[in-house]
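In practice, a research group might receive sequence data for several interacting partners and want a quick structural hypothesis before committing to experiments. The following worked case mirrors that situation: the sequences arrive first, and a predicted assembly follows.
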Amino acid sequence: MTFVVTDNCIKCKYMDCVEVCPVDCFYEGENMLAIHPDECIDCGVCEPECPADAISADTEPGLESWMKLNAEYASVWPNITIKREQPADAKTFDGVANKLKQYFSANPGQGD
Amino acid sequence: MIAAAGRLDDVSEDGIRRLVDAFYVKVRADPELAPIFAHTIPGDWQPHLTKMYAFWSSVMLTTGRYKGNPVAKHLIIPGMKPQLFERWLALFEATCREQFDNATSEAFRIKAERIAESLKLALFYRPDRPWPPEPTP
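A structural hypothesis for the assembly, expressed as tokens:
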């Protein structure tokens, strides 16, 4: 069991989660974060920290594709443990539907 | 705050220290767990205790004080068995109930069980074997 980052992180990327994660299991893409499923210990600390409500327990239904996406990109994106300033337009994208299709970037972020 | 019978009714850094100290006294006296811990922590226990204060502070108070990789740490401990997690949880829960009121110890228990399950999966889950694993002798 682990937590997964979902659609609403895309282009919001607030990064509050990375500061509180005890096990440094967040990885940074250009416009989204991913949780490494082999490193997450399911403590749940990150979930309420996300201003965009983008983090869910993988026990919730319908998250299979997000579990796959998190696992795939967490293994190639750089680790991030220190929060930076969120994107200037984060608020504009908070709550926009189906961001994966329109905006997701597979490119790595800058990491720590 | 201290409730009736000296049990704390909220989570604080002080309470976490009390819990961790009391818990590891039990662990070090436990026939199942003591040898595993003694092998991994042969000398001074204070660095481990300090790390555990930080861990539980991160988990219960969201302080981000602990930074580490507990999965990797557990993977290299010799003699790990799934049922050791059950023993660990039983002692932890008992200590929580001694130190904290019911609601607070329940909050600790829920976190501890989730983390234990997650570590157990990381250590023992294999796609070709049944889960939960059969107890090993």
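Before designing any experiment, note the following. The first strand of chain A starts at residue 3 and ends at 5. The mean pLDDT of chain A is 96.
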